[in-house]
Specification:
By secondary structure, the protein is α/β, with parallel strands linked by helices. It is built from 15 helices and twelve strands.
Length: about 350
């Protein structure tokens, strides 16, 4: 079977979508011919992460998928189209969605190709995957049960399958040698792209109210400077550290910490950092919603992060609780080996 992944920033940035492509494609290659199409390093990571400013006109461009990222996806997709048409693929997986799904759907409508389209819902509940669903791919993969229910309500004409994102249990495990971190213990770690919906500012505020303990933040993004200033103001250099490391180094920072927290808004598609942290043995404090409860199970506590006092008290409670092996056991449900097999099963049938 021939399979194609389209993901513009593959190998340039390390996010949930890029990790999904890397892990699933590498496992599918053991039995199938798999091609991953990307922009091939012709763009910097900084530019890849840049977004159209949310001015009045910026919002208009975003609404109609004409913002800088969407235009880049459109041009990238058109550039690889000849190779897609000649490739003889049985399945094409347009990870960037939007223009990619539309263009592939047009090709199918005009009977220019026979491949099937699989959309993995990496964008999460919201306008991007709403548009993807309305273009009626052959299969839509929901990353959570909640997203699956939502997708089925949008359209009954698309096959909706639940398959979560995963974790490499060999790379992420409690035995990884801890990194050396010069912070006051206990150390609370947060791994996140610094965008508003990640709500890292709430994590800083809640941590600052603890009698002791520090916040280690791995991440960068549009709010980087704002978050850095807030962390230094409320926690100071002895209790706050924001840095970026290679993805391969992240496990050592988990094992050097005592607790993981991430309180993104409920629109987040999955949150791979949860399962990575749990795989390294860390309990979790997360937003209280159906999707987080599904992912984390009994390996952590749930909170309304907008109530800062409640958030602080929940962090304290988690730090004092002995979760034993529950985090690792929960993470084992999300093995990439198992997940890749589920994708293969869909495409082989």
């Amino acid at each position: 079977m021939k399979i194609a992944f389209l993901n513009i920033y593959q190998g340039i940035v390390s996010r949930g979508a890029e990790n999904f492509v890397k892990e699933v494609s590498s496992r599918l290659k053991e039995k199938h011919q798999v091609d991953v199409f990307s922009i091939d390093g012709r763009i910097s990571e900084e530019k890849a992460r840049s977004q159209t400013p949310l001015t009045f006109w910026g919002k208009i461009l975003y609404k109609f998928f004409l913002d800088s990222h969407s235009r880049r996806v459109l041009l990238f997709t058109l550039s690889v189209l000849p190779r897609i048409l000649k490739g003889g693929f049985g399945w094409v997986i347009p990870v960037d969605g939007g223009w990619q799904v539309l263009i592939l759907k047009i090709l199918k409508l005009f009977k220019l190709t026979k491949f099937k389209i699989l959309v993995s819902g990496q964008a999460g509940i919201g306008r991007d995957d709403l548009r993807n669903l309305r273009m009626r791919p052959d299969v839509f993969v929901a990353l959570t049960q909640r997203a699956g229910k939502w997708a089925k309500e949008i359209t009954r004409e698309v096959r909706v399958v639940y398959i979560p994102n995963g974790v490499d249990l060999k790379k992420f495990n409690p035995e990884v040698k801890p990194a050396k971190i010069n912070l006051e213990r206990p150390i609370i770690i947060c791994v996140a792209g610094l965008n508003p919906y990640k709500r890292v500012d709430l994590t800083i505020k809640a941590t600052s109210k603890l009698d002791k303990g520090s916040l280690l933040l791995l991440g960068d993004g549009p709010e980087g400077e704002k978050i850095e200033n807030l962390g230094q103001k409320l926690l100071g250099p002895k209790r706050f550290l924001r840095t970026t490391v290679l993805y391969e180094e992240v496990p050592s920072y988990y094992t050097a910490s005592d607790l993981f927290t991430l309180v993104s808004e409920s629109s987040e598609a999955f949150g791979s950092a949860y399962v990575e942290a749990m795989a390294c043995g860390l309990p979790v404090v997360a937003t209280d919603d159906e999707s987080r409860r599904e992912i984390i199970g009994e390996a952590g506590f749930f909170v309304d992060p907008e109530d800062i006092n409640e958030y602080t008290q929940t962090l304290e409670k988690a730090l004092k609780t002995n979760f034993g092996d529950k985090p690792r056991q929960q993470a084992q449900k999300f093995s990439w080996d198992k997940i890749a097999s589920q994708y293969e099963e869909i495409m082989v049938k």
